[in-house]
Amino acid sequence: MAGLVAGFAGLAASYCVAMVMTTRDSPVTAVAELVTRLTPGPVVERAIRILGHHDKQFLLLMILLLSGVVFAWAGRLARRSWWAPTIVFAVLGVVGGIAVWLQRGSGAIDILPIGVGFATWLVCLSLLTEPLRLHERALTAAAEVPEQPGIPARADHTRRTFLLRAGIIVAGTTVVGTVGRVVGRGRRHVEEARRLLRLPGVTGPHVPDGVRVGLEGVTPWATPARDFYRIDTAFVVPTIDPTDWQLRIHGMVDREIVLTYQQLIDRQVTQAWVTLNCVSNPVGGDLIGNAWWSGVRIADLLAAAGVQPGADAVLQTSDDGWTCGTPIGALTDQRDAMLAFAMNGRPLPIDHGFPVRTIVPGLYGYVSACKWVVEMKVTRFADIEAYWTSKGWSELGPVKISSRIDVPGDGGEVLASGGRVGGMAWSQHTGISAVEVSVDDGPWQPADIGGVPSTDTWVQWAATIDVEPGDHTLAVRATDADGQVQTGEEQDVLPDGATGWHTIDFKATETTDE
Ligand SMILES: Nc1nc2c(c(=O)[nH]1)N[C@H]1C(S)=C(S)[C@@H](COP(=O)(O)O)O[C@H]1N2
Ligand SMILES: [Mo]
């Protein structure tokens, strides 16, 4: 019983954490998916034919039953040693971990629920086995010295301790499991609504010709949604049914506007490739991605609302309360600042702001790219404080020109003669005109750069080097379309974005290993 109670407490904890993290299904579902994937097709088909649409529930039930048996067995093993059940659980954890790992688009963080489950189980099992051990000892003592009066009372006491703890753990398991269910159900409902959406006017993505420099290992120019970096402060990601979504545009405007989702998607659709990056991206970092966004121009909406003189900012508020202050100029000039409802031709992923988020070319995400946006207040910077600016980040967040070496990786190898190196460079809404590399602080030599559809995206670059075999360093710098050269002066990400040249160590070799 101790094994069962502790086992299911661990499962409930991992389930709840998975639901709250919202990125994936629970580990049990991941195992079920893995079993389905490993089962030969004909067997699956037969199972579906016999079980109808209940095949998934049946499989989940089987996995839970089997887990129950293993839990109970682990509890029995705990009688004799602490390590035997620990190994059993470690094995279960590894199976769950592998199943989660093999899911599409999972990352290291998705293993967290399993770690929490394992820790929960460990604590619960020792809480339960401790009084049992004392109980057995008391009973043995009672058998040996039957006339000792205190012993039956002691046995009684340990028994009560066990039952009390088991009761608390079962109650806790129920609460935690229910929380997981409620959170998970909201998400599943919204995922379903998202899947069923049809967005007229949303097309693509079609990657333009000529953007690739054709060097293996350089970051793909177009970032798939599942590889797109994610930054937000939300512990539980807002799950908003599009039919419940509304955006209120108010403040220093002539006419307040309230927009529903249907009204938004019925408007003229604007689409563009825009590279988004995070102000916290260190030099050489990967908090940057490039996607095909579809939405409605914010400039048109603000014009319809009628911005009053004196306003210089729009305070955007997310459904989860997060705020950012965006310079009104960037929202009303010619650029494609939009309320985006699709990313790469599909409704926004929930983690990237479903149903609607803001995208402003040329600004860091923290001052512009409000996910789950529900409110835009036209105002003055002097009158507002936004989430990150209240923590010391600068008020205006124009992106800084930067470049990065992808090939080779730091410490990697390159052919000494004719070796190819490459990476990415960006200066959104200004554009990149040149990229140069320098070996061992030597002269800057030009790289080839890929084509781009607009100044709002990053570019791929590649260069050929000729050096002596041995250890070297490689640095990269970019020049923007205005002729401004990326500075080598190093600055930390706080308060307005990092600067400096990405520099790596590499080894030049006479031949490649491959
Ligand atoms: N609601 C909300 N929107 C947000 C944030 C947030 O914490 N909450 N983070 C911002 C930051 S700092 C960045 S860099 C971008 C990241 O967007 P992404 O997660 O889609 O890549 O979202 C912005 N929008
Ligand atoms: Mo960010």
Automatic annotation (TrEMBL):
Stretches that traverse the bilayer: 58-75, 82-102, 108-128, 162-184
Keywords linked to the UniProt accession: Membrane, Transmembrane, Transmembrane helix
Residues in Oxidoreductase molybdopterin-binding domain copies: 236-382
Keyword Transmembrane helix: yes
Domain of life, source organism: Bacteria
Pfam families according to UniProt: Oxidored_molyb
Record-linked SUPFAM superfamilies: E set domains, Oxidoreductase molybdopterin-binding domain
Coiled coil start-end: none
PANTHER family: SULFITE OXIDASE, MITOCHONDRIAL, SULFITE REDUCTASE
Name this protein carries in UniProt: Molybdopterin-dependent oxidoreductase
Organism: Nocardioides endophyticus
